């Protein structure tokens, strides 16, 4: 299939892009990397009258440190996340998840902001935004607003973005000397969508868990935090027994869907296995 | 709505200025407007990797972008890489190792391989497989394809050490 005909506009500023969307009466779509949007257009799942290209907007680019946050422009490509020294140092969980995002050619074009805006429950970066307690900067004709990742993901491909709004940047609290993180996912073949994926983001205090955020992908209609498992760890050292308690708690956090290939119980089992491996592999030395 | 837009870009070293319908993908533009049919269209949804081309020296799917998005870009197809002899050692290795059967996936494999080798380091077989995870070969010739890329990487590495 081929995309329906559309008008193509390449505005010079975010403000202009927002106005073009408004002027189109909402019958428009922003395109940055386009790695999910172009197939959706080809399949006619979407058929906007106007395509607004925001990939080259300077305002949406750049990775910088700002007041304890790592600020990542929405149009930052996955490959830049993968290779950025700033990301590796200050948001290592993103650097660890990046090699699992799609394939090299997709990573050369797809954008960080685009991945969050799409909110595919099988995607790595939305779940890691949750694990990192990131803030999403949203631009609209009414002005900018900030939404915590917690309040951003609302359901299957559903986010707090209103029609016409655009992600401008994502702010990630920077890692400290007491931060520990890990990411992994299980899939049948290399590069396949994960059967289940998980990121853990731990703050230690004297070899005990001071705080922890655990987020899963591919376990439901949206990225999911495992808050019961998190609570089970706070205040404790990461011993094998304590990790077992957190693993068991997952049954209360996750209610994954099942199908003929991956029954629900198998997915939950894999989530337990993955969490155990990730927590068990953390370096808890002070 | 169906009006064409003017674009200018560089394809295989040549300046191209032309009109193109906004909904035309870069893959269709290369194949139909420029007759560069080395870029193959398989799945047309970014899964098979047969349409990979270099845009500003990075492998991307030509089916996952519209030609109008390539305004001002430097595009190189398997024909361009062949003409400037950037992959002749890879092509010889593919031939010697029998790394193609029907050949449909080969242009995409070569562009992926170009990207792997351009990184400079000597990749392991695991790394080569990982980098090829977005390239389908339905003749299931992966083993030979990895062989060919590995052999080329090693030869280039040895040549660099001698130089």
Gist?
With 286 residues, chain A is an alpha+beta fold.
Keywords:
A: 286 residues; alpha+beta; Uridine Diphospho-n-acetylenolpyruvylglucosamine Reductase, domain 2; Enolase-like, domain 1; 3 domains; 5-stranded antiparallel β-sheet; 4-stranded antiparallel β-sheet; 14 strands; B: 163 residues; Ubiquitin-like (UB roll); DNA polymerase, domain 1; 5-stranded mixed β-sheet
Question: Could you characterize what this model shows?
Answer:
- The complex is a heterodimer of chains A (286) and B (163).
- With 286 residues, chain A is an alpha+beta fold.
- Chain A folds into 3 domains: 7-53, 2-Layer Sandwich (Uridine Diphospho-n-acetylenolpyruvylglucosamine Reductase, domain 2), CATH 3.30.43; 59-173, 2-Layer Sandwich (Uridine Diphospho-n-acetylenolpyruvylglucosamine Reductase, domain 3); 179-280, 2-Layer Sandwich (Enolase-like, domain 1), CATH 3.30.390.50.
- Helices cover 33% and strands 26% of the residues of chain A.
- Chain A has helices spanning 14-23, 37-42, 78-83, 85-90, 92-97, 104-107, 112-118, 124-131, 149-152, 227-233, 240-253, 264-280; strands at 7-9, 28-31, 50-53, 63-66, 69-73, 135-140, 143-148, 153-155, 158-159, 166-173, 179-186, 196-205, 208-217, 224-225.
- The relative contact order of chain A is 0.11.
- Chain B is α+β, with helices and mostly antiparallel strands and 163 residues long.
- Chain B has helices at residues 26-33, 78-83, 88-96, 106-118, 125-131, 142-162, and strands at residues 4-11, 14-21, 52-55, 58-61, 74-76.
- At the A-B interface, helix 2 and helix 6 of A face strand 4 and helix 5 of B.
């Amino acid at each position: 299939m081929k995309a329906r005909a559309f008008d193509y506009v390449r505005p010079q500023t975010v403000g202009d892009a927002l106005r073009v969307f408004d002027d189109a009466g909402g019958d428009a779509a922003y395109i940055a990397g386009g790695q999910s949007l172009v197939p959706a257009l080809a399949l006619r799942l979407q058929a906007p009258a106007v395509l607004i290209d925001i990939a080259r907007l300077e305002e949406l680019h750049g990775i910088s440190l700002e007041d304890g946050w790592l600020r990542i422009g929405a149009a930052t490509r996955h490959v830049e996340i993968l290779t950025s020294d700033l990301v590796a140092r200050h948001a290592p969980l993103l650097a660890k998840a990046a090699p699992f995002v799609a394939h090299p050619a997709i990573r050369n074009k797809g954008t960080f902001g685009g991945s969050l805006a799409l909110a595919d429950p099988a995607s790595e970066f939305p779940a890691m935004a949750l694990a990192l307690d990131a803030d999403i900067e949203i631009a609209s004709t009414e002005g900018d607003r900030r939404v915590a990742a917690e309040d951003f993901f609302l359901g299957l491909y559903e986010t707090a973005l209103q029609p016409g709004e655009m992600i401008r940047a994502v702010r990630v609290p920077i890692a400290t000397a007491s931060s520990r993180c890990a990411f992994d996912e299980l899939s049948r073949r290399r590069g396949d969508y994960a059967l289940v994926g998980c990121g853990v983001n731990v703050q230690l205090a004297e070899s005990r868990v001071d705080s922890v955020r655990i987020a899963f992908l591919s376990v439901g209609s949206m990225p999911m935090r495992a808050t019961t498992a998190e609570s089970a760890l706070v205040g404790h050292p990461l011993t094998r027994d304590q990790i077992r308690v957190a693993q068991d708690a997952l049954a209360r956090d996750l209610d994954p869907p099942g199908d003929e290939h991956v029954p629900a119980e198998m997915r939950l089992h894999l989530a337990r296995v993955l969490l155990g491996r990730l927590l068990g592999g953390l370096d808890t030395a002070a | 709505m169906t009006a064409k837009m003017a674009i200018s870009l560089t394809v295989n070293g040549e300046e191209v200025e032309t009109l193109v319908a906004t909904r035309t993908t870069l893959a269709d533009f290369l194949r139909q407007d420029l007759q560069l049919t080395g870029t193959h269209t398989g799945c047309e949804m970014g899964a098979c990797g047969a349409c990979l081309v270099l845009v500003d020296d990075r492998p991307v799917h030509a089916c996952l972008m519209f030609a109008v998005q390539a305004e001002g870009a430097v595009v190189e197809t398997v024909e361009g890489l062949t003409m400037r002899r950037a992959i002749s050692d890879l092509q010889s290795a593919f031939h010697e190792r029998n790394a193609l059967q029907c050949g449909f996936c080969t242009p995409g494999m070569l562009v992926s391989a170009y990207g792997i080798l351009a990184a400079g380091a000597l990749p392991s077989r695991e790394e080569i497989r990982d980098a090829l995870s977005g390239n389908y070969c339905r003749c299931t010739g992966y083993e030979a394809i990895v062989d060919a890329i590995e052999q080329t990487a090693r030869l280039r590495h040895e040549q660099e050490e001698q130089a």
